[in-house]
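Entry 12.
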Amino acid sequence: QVQLVESGGGLVQAGGSLRLSCAVSGGTFSNYAMGWFRRAPGKEREFVAAISYSSRAVYYGTSVKGRVTISRDNTKNTVDLQMNSLKPEDTAVYYCAADAGPTFYSGDYYLSESYDYWGQGTQVTVSS
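Predicted 3D structure (tokens):
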């Protein structure tokens, strides 16, 4: 059974930084494309970032591009999301997700339905 556990969320002031991490167990991590999504109160789940199994391909959502960096370590089975210049509108629950199939490489990396496994989420709150 594949399990994803996020960590690193918390309360930060606007302009600050946070680094989220997702630990994956129970599967072959190096075979998975990985993604980060978020859901703010009252809003739809939003694509944040994605990374291919080899780290050669990375993608970012338009609202965070230039402020976040996704990375992975296939030796540690982790994927991280470094977030800088945080804004109050970044407040959300952030979810890590794993895509065990080919949909990532078909260009659908930004769709939540492309992902097979999800973590429970970690809360990020940015105060103004």
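Annotation: The CA atoms of residues 70 and 81 lie 5 Å apart. The chain has no helices and eleven strands.
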